[in-house]
What we know:
- By secondary structure, this protein is mostly helical.
- The protein contains six helices and no strands.
- Helices cover 61% and strands 0% of the residues.
Amino acid sequence: EDAGLVKKLSIALKPVMTRLFPDVPGDHPAMGAILMNISANVFGLGDAATPFGLKAMKELQSLNADEETATDAMCTFLAINTSSVTLIPATIIAYRAAADSANPAEIIGAAIIATTASTIVAIIAVKALAKLPAFKASKPKMKIHKDIQA
Length: 150
Protein backbone atom coordinates (compact mmCIF):
# COMPACT_ATOMS: atom_id res chain seq x y z
CA GLU A 1 0.00 0.00 0.00
CA ASP A 2 2.83 2.40 0.87
CA ALA A 3 4.41 1.74 -2.54
CA GLY A 4 1.27 3.00 -4.26
CA LEU A 5 0.32 -0.36 -5.82
CA VAL A 6 -3.30 -0.11 -4.66
CA LYS A 7 -3.62 3.39 -6.14
CA LYS A 8 -2.07 2.30 -9.47
CA LEU A 9 -4.34 -0.73 -9.69
CA SER A 10 -7.41 1.38 -8.94
CA ILE A 11 -6.47 3.69 -11.84
CA ALA A 12 -6.01 0.69 -14.15
CA LEU A 13 -9.37 -0.81 -13.11
CA LYS A 14 -11.42 2.37 -13.54
CA PRO A 15 -12.47 1.69 -17.19
CA VAL A 16 -13.67 -1.81 -16.24
CA MET A 17 -15.46 -0.56 -13.14
CA THR A 18 -17.40 2.10 -15.04
CA ARG A 19 -18.75 -0.68 -17.28
CA LEU A 20 -19.60 -2.95 -14.36
CA PHE A 21 -21.28 -0.10 -12.46
CA PRO A 22 -22.96 2.03 -15.15
CA ASP A 23 -25.35 3.63 -12.62
CA VAL A 24 -22.47 5.01 -10.54
CA PRO A 25 -20.91 8.23 -11.84
CA GLY A 26 -17.17 7.79 -12.39
CA ASP A 27 -16.32 10.71 -10.12
CA HIS A 28 -18.72 9.71 -7.31
CA PRO A 29 -17.13 8.76 -3.95
CA ALA A 30 -18.78 5.32 -4.26
CA MET A 31 -16.64 4.53 -7.31
CA GLY A 32 -13.48 5.51 -5.46
CA ALA A 33 -14.38 3.33 -2.48
CA ILE A 34 -15.27 0.40 -4.77
CA LEU A 35 -11.96 0.74 -6.60
CA MET A 36 -9.97 0.91 -3.37
CA ASN A 37 -11.83 -2.08 -1.90
CA ILE A 38 -11.26 -4.28 -4.94
CA SER A 39 -7.65 -3.12 -5.28
CA ALA A 40 -6.91 -3.98 -1.65
CA ASN A 41 -8.59 -7.38 -2.06
CA VAL A 42 -6.55 -8.12 -5.21
CA PHE A 43 -3.38 -7.84 -3.13
CA GLY A 44 -4.81 -9.97 -0.33
CA LEU A 45 -5.19 -7.03 2.04
CA GLY A 46 -8.60 -8.03 3.39
CA ASP A 47 -8.24 -6.03 6.60
CA ALA A 48 -7.50 -2.89 4.59
CA ALA A 49 -10.33 -3.66 2.16
CA THR A 50 -13.10 -3.90 4.76
CA PRO A 51 -13.37 -0.17 5.59
CA PHE A 52 -13.42 0.64 1.87
CA GLY A 53 -16.18 -1.94 1.34
CA LEU A 54 -18.30 -0.43 4.11
CA LYS A 55 -17.72 3.06 2.73
CA ALA A 56 -18.61 1.87 -0.78
CA MET A 57 -21.94 0.45 0.39
CA LYS A 58 -22.70 3.65 2.31
CA GLU A 59 -21.91 5.76 -0.77
CA LEU A 60 -23.94 3.44 -3.02
CA GLN A 61 -26.86 3.84 -0.61
CA SER A 62 -26.62 7.62 -1.09
CA LEU A 63 -27.44 7.03 -4.79
CA ASN A 64 -30.38 4.77 -3.94
CA ALA A 65 -33.89 6.20 -4.26
CA ASP A 66 -35.42 3.24 -2.38
CA GLU A 67 -33.67 2.63 0.94
CA GLU A 68 -35.41 -0.74 1.36
CA THR A 69 -34.09 -2.30 -1.87
CA ALA A 70 -30.51 -2.85 -2.96
CA THR A 71 -29.55 -1.31 -6.29
CA ASP A 72 -27.99 -3.26 -9.16
CA ALA A 73 -24.66 -1.60 -8.31
CA MET A 74 -24.91 -2.76 -4.69
CA CYS A 75 -25.67 -6.32 -5.79
CA THR A 76 -22.82 -6.29 -8.31
CA PHE A 77 -20.38 -4.99 -5.70
CA LEU A 78 -21.49 -7.61 -3.20
CA ALA A 79 -21.19 -10.40 -5.79
CA ILE A 80 -17.67 -9.34 -6.76
CA ASN A 81 -16.62 -9.12 -3.11
CA THR A 82 -18.14 -12.51 -2.35
CA SER A 83 -16.21 -14.05 -5.25
CA SER A 84 -12.95 -13.42 -3.35
CA VAL A 85 -11.00 -11.32 -5.82
CA THR A 86 -7.40 -12.07 -4.80
CA LEU A 87 -4.42 -12.31 -7.13
CA ILE A 88 -1.78 -12.31 -4.41
CA PRO A 89 -3.03 -14.19 -1.32
CA ALA A 90 -0.64 -12.50 1.10
CA THR A 91 -2.11 -14.14 4.21
CA ILE A 92 -1.87 -17.66 2.78
CA ILE A 93 1.67 -17.00 1.58
CA ALA A 94 2.59 -15.81 5.08
CA TYR A 95 1.04 -18.92 6.67
CA ARG A 96 2.90 -21.17 4.23
CA ALA A 97 6.17 -19.35 4.94
CA ALA A 98 5.60 -19.69 8.69
CA ALA A 99 5.05 -23.43 8.17
CA ASP A 100 8.45 -23.65 6.43
CA SER A 101 7.00 -24.31 2.98
CA ALA A 102 9.68 -24.83 0.33
CA ASN A 103 7.86 -22.40 -1.98
CA PRO A 104 5.19 -20.40 -0.12
CA ALA A 105 4.22 -18.38 -3.21
CA GLU A 106 3.45 -21.39 -5.41
CA ILE A 107 -0.22 -20.89 -4.49
CA ILE A 108 -0.41 -17.74 -6.64
CA GLY A 109 -1.18 -19.63 -9.88
CA ALA A 110 -4.05 -21.53 -8.31
CA ALA A 111 -5.31 -18.32 -6.69
CA ILE A 112 -5.39 -16.54 -10.05
CA ILE A 113 -7.34 -19.38 -11.67
CA ALA A 114 -9.79 -19.60 -8.76
CA THR A 115 -10.38 -15.86 -8.48
CA THR A 116 -10.84 -15.49 -12.24
CA ALA A 117 -13.42 -18.28 -12.38
CA SER A 118 -15.32 -17.17 -9.28
CA THR A 119 -15.41 -13.51 -10.34
CA ILE A 120 -16.60 -14.31 -13.87
CA VAL A 121 -19.36 -16.55 -12.50
CA ALA A 122 -20.36 -13.88 -9.95
CA ILE A 123 -20.59 -11.13 -12.57
CA ILE A 124 -22.53 -13.30 -15.04
CA ALA A 125 -24.92 -14.41 -12.28
CA VAL A 126 -25.61 -10.92 -10.91
CA LYS A 127 -26.11 -9.41 -14.38
CA ALA A 128 -28.39 -12.29 -15.48
CA LEU A 129 -30.45 -12.21 -12.29
CA ALA A 130 -30.87 -8.43 -12.54
CA LYS A 131 -32.75 -8.95 -15.82
CA LEU A 132 -35.32 -11.34 -14.33
CA PRO A 133 -38.63 -9.76 -13.27
CA ALA A 134 -38.46 -11.24 -9.77
CA PHE A 135 -35.14 -9.50 -9.13
CA LYS A 136 -35.80 -6.13 -10.74
CA ALA A 137 -35.91 -3.30 -8.29
CA SER A 138 -39.32 -1.68 -8.25
CA LYS A 139 -39.47 2.03 -8.84
CA PRO A 140 -40.47 3.99 -5.73
CA LYS A 141 -44.13 4.89 -5.81
CA MET A 142 -44.83 8.60 -6.00
CA LYS A 143 -47.59 10.08 -3.91
CA ILE A 144 -50.30 11.66 -6.02
CA HIS A 145 -51.72 14.85 -4.63
CA LYS A 146 -55.48 14.59 -4.02
CA ASP A 147 -56.19 17.57 -6.33
CA ILE A 148 -54.47 15.90 -9.28
CA GLN A 149 -56.32 13.20 -11.18
CA ALA A 150 -54.14 10.37 -12.42
